[in-house]
Amino acid sequence: MEIVVDSDRCTGHGRCYTLAPDVYEPDDDGYCQEQVAPVPLELKDRALLGAANCPEDAITVTGDD
Q1: What CATH number should be reported for the domain whose range is 2-62?
Q2: Cα gap 14→63, rounded to integer Å
Q3: d(CA 14, CA 43)
Q4: Is the pLDDT of residue 36 over 80?
Q5: In angstroms, rounded to a whole number, what is the distance separating the alpha carbons of residues 65 and 1?
Q6: CA pseudo-torsion sign 57, 65, 34, 37
Q7: Helical (H) or strand (E) element with 60
C-alpha cells in the first residue's frame, strides 16, 4: 500500500499526523509527509483514517498491500 501526498493541496492542518502519527508526520513547515513507505498492512486503517480526515483531500492511499 502506498500513500501519495499532494503537496500543492496540503495546507498543513495536521489532522493526518495527529490522528495517525505512526503513518504520517509533519515536515519542517508543518505540512504532511508519509512516515512509512510502503505502508504495512497492519497500518492500513490508520493510513485511511488520516487520509479521510484531510479537509483538502490531499492524501491518496493506493493498493491493498
Answers
A1: 3.30.70.20
A2: 24
A3: 18
A4: no
A5: 5
A6: negative
A7: strand 59-62
What are the grid coordinates assigned to 6, written together?
A: 499532494
Q: How far is CA 26 from CA 7, 38, 61, in A?
A: 12, 17, 17
Write the Ramachandran bin of 46: left for phi over 0, alpha for psi from -120 to 50, otherwise beta: alpha
Convert the pLDDT of each residue in 1-34 to its tens digit: 999 999 999 999 999 999 999 999 999 999 998 8
State the pTM of this model: 0.88
> What are 24's three cell numbers?
504520517
Nearest to 44 by CA among 65, 15, 13, 21: 65
Are 14 and 59 in contact, with CB atoms under 8 Å apart?
no
